[in-house]
Amino acid sequence: MKREMFFCGDPVLRKKAKRVREIDDSIRALFEDMKETMDDANGVGLAAPQIGEPIRMICVREDLGEEHEVHCLLNPVLVEGSGKQEGMEGCLSLPTLYALVIRSEKVLAQGTGLDGNAVQIEAEGLLARALQHEIDHLNGVLFIDRAEADTLSWMVPDKSDEDGFRWDPATFEEAQERFNRLREARDSR
Ligand code: ZN
Predict the structure, then answer these.
(1) Which residues, including other chains, have CB under 8 Å from residue 56's CB and lie 6 or more apart?
(2) What is the mean pLDDT of the chain?
């Protein structure tokens, strides 16, 4: 079932999430919900707090040419990081806001899979970025906390641009106001 998104300003996004101690039907059902919610929003990753569940569980989407695979990690940790990548980063909990965030180019993440077995993911590029971003969520950290100064921008659809969008400068204050309105709209439904 697709779930409501929690937005910047919702307290759950700033909490340290709790460890998963037992893999039961509720965890398996939560994974299905996370996958559906992430796919529906065209995301490459989602952390459980983003749908209001303060537990240490993430999913990330790995593109494999035509196909893709969604990995689920319980209690994930980064055990290694190397290199450096610079890129504009966004988040489903801060829709259309982006900023330049410097991340490790390669990471090794470890956690537990839904079957209870240990999982290791060696990643680089976008998948490595997604893993770092989602694990941050479990510690109450958002990408705006790691953004390079003065790079906060709105992605605005623009047909006159060859990419189909342009960047408009943003401030934390106006971003928070916009997300407050999204939360109010969600809560009044
Ligand atoms: Zn996010």
Answers:
(1) 17, 18, 19, 20, 48, 74, 75, 76, 138
(2) 96
Q: Are 70 and 119 in contact (CB under 8 A)?
A: no
How remote is the CA of residue 142 from the centroid of ligand 1, in Å?
7
CA 159 to centroid of ligand 1, rounded, Å? 27
Tokens of 172: 């934390």
- Residue 48 DSSP SS3: helix
User: What pLDDT score was predicted for residue 108?
Assistant: 98
- Give the integer Cα–Cα distance in Å for 112 and 60: 14
pLDDT digits (tens, 9 = 90+) for 97-130: 999 999 999 999 999 999 999 999 999 999 999 9
Spatial separation of the C-alpha atoms in residues 58 and 76, rounded to whole Å: 8
Q: Give residue 65's pLDDT band: very low, low, confident or very high (50, 70, 90).
A: confident
Residues 161-184, mean pLDDT to the nearest whole number: 95
| Residues by chain with Cβ below 5 Å of ion ligand 1 | 91
**92 in Cβ contact with 45 (< 8 Å):** no
